[in-house]
Amino acid sequence: MERKRLTRRDFGRVAGLAGLGVAGGVLLPGARGAAHADTFEPEFPRPVFKVTGSTDPGLDAFDQAMSRFMQDRNISAGSLAVSRNGKLVLARGYSFSRNLHFTVEPTALFRLASVSKPITAAAVLKLVQAGKLSLDDRLTDRLTLTPPPGKTADARLGNVTVRRLLQHLGGWDRALTPDPMFLDSVIASELGVPLPISRSNIMRRTTGVRLDFDPGARYAYSNYGYMLLGRIIEKAGGMPYATYVQEKILNPRGITRMRQGRSLPEYAAPGEVSYESKQEAVYVFDSSGSLVPSPDGGFNLENMDAHGGWLGSAVDVVRFGDLFDQRGIKYDPVLDHITFPTLEGDSIDQAFAQPEIGVQPGGWWYGCGWVVRNAGGGIDAAHNGSLPGTTTLLVRRHDGLNWAALFNRRRDDDTELDFDASIDNALRQAANAVTSWPSVNLYRDYL
Q1: Left if phi > 0, otherwise alpha if psi is -120 to 50, otherwise beta: which for 333?
Q2: Which of 151, 192, 254, 273 has the fewest CB atoms in 10 Å of its CB?
Q3: Taking a C-beta distance cutoff of 8 angstroms, is the pair 401, 431 a contact?
Q4: Backbone angles phi, psi at 159, to 5 degrees
Q5: For residue 44, what pLDDT is reported?
Q6: Phi and psi (nearest 5°) for 385?
Q7: Edge to edge, what strands does the sheet with 110-111 contain?
Q8: What confidence tens digit (pLDDT) does each residue in 51-105 have?
Q9: The pLDDT value given to residue 43
Q10: Reduced 3-state DSSP string for the chain
Q11: What is the pLDDT of residue 26?
């Protein structure tokens, strides 16, 4: 019997209603974008753009940037948070839908995709700071990697270090060898195991595949390398990966909503948005071969914990980004139970340090979990994320500004090539347009 196609249930549910201190929604008629398939009131035949949350009139350029971006691309759910010098100055939720009951609050949870990588890197640096790990430790000394029968592990795995994993210098290049984090059926077939496969299955199969280049020789973005870092964190930290991150990185910063996401819509977290995509994929949780909407079982999010598995609100994500501006701060007057920084100054420096291969031709480099470049006498650092149904962006600027933007869809085809760059540029222009920044700190309203 053919499996019924899965869809995100209750798309019109109110997301993130637990947010505190938020203003009532502002409704703006949608001027662009194709009609949604969700339910709508007959007297509102066109999509309506709604805004919730807190900000200052002087920051209207951010709302305008998000409105244009979402309406031009028919994105139904988005969120933005902006901080300045460690103070939250904007927290917004945005919806663009014909369903007037559909509202996105600033505390709504989104899949963070690869914005999970700076979080994993922070956990590694915390372990180094605690003396439980060294950046120069070898992968093969920290994890037991066993290839499948009849296969041999590449001897160069002995040259993969924790630092090289963090900086995407480990030797795996998904442009040459397909990303093993998205090869569920292939790995199940090769190993003779049923779907869904586990992280252990992925590691076993990939250990028997030759590296694409000598570790440390060049940069190549690797989701698999960050999945391995999650396992190293578990070994060195003595607890599950997510538990270590929550206890040592997030909770001390007052971040309690963030959690690991689930693949299937029936397991969505309270306050989590629905995800939209034009793409379909083969269901990876059994061998039926059924096609499903790609965000709803077309990939195994549970296996992606350390490289793409986190859920968070924009407020949570920007507060995480703020910890890298907290050098030497011992007391937070807004959250007085937070009396120490999560990372010390040396660890923060290490997050943005240049790798052994130096700077890329475009003037950027990948540090420990961040894309970095020199700017304004300091550095700018950022990370984006993308999965079917998800686009995310975290920016940390040299001038004390941080922002996080989250959306419930991504570029689905080649007609949207400007998708990621467009919102990045629009938010930078919005920040540059501000002439007077408010002195408020909204973090207390969004605990």
Answers
A1: alpha
A2: 192
A3: yes
A4: -100, 5
A5: 54
A6: -145, 150
A7: 110-111, 310-312, 259-260
A8: 999 989 999 999 999 999 999 999 999 999 999 999 999 999 999 999 988 999 9
A9: 54
A10: CCCCCCCCCCCCCCECCCCCCCEEEEEEECCCCCCCCCCCCCCCCCCEEEEEEECCHHHHHHHHHHHHHHHHCCCCEEEEEEEECCEEEEEEEEEEECCCCCCECCCCEEECHHHHHHHHHHHHHHHHHCCCCCCCCEHHHHCCCCCCCCCCCCHHHHHCEHHHHHCCCCCCCCCCCCCHHHCHHHHHHHHCCCCCCCHHHHHHHHHCCCCCCCCCCCCCCCHHHHHHHHHHHHHHHCCCHHHHHHHHHHHHHCCCCCEECCCCHHHCCCCECCCCCCCEEECCCCCCCCEEEHHHCCCCHHHHHHHHCEEECHHHHHHHHHHHHCCCCCCCCCCCCCCCCCCCHHHHHHHCCCCCCCCCCCCEEECCCCEEEEECCEEEEEEEEEECCEEEEEEECCCCEEEEEEECCCCCCHHHCCHHHHHHHHHHHHHHHCCCCCCCCCHHHHC
A11: 39
Task: Give the type of residue at 113.
Answer: A
Residue 315's pLDDT is 97
Low-confidence ranges of the chain (pLDDT < 50): 1-37, 39-40, 328-331, 333-334, 336-340
8 A C-beta contact, residue 209 and residue 249: no
Residue range 422-436, pLDDT digits in tens: 999 999 999 999 999
pLDDT of residue 16: 32
Closest CA to 306 of 69, 76, 60, 121: 121
Model pLDDT, residue 419:
87
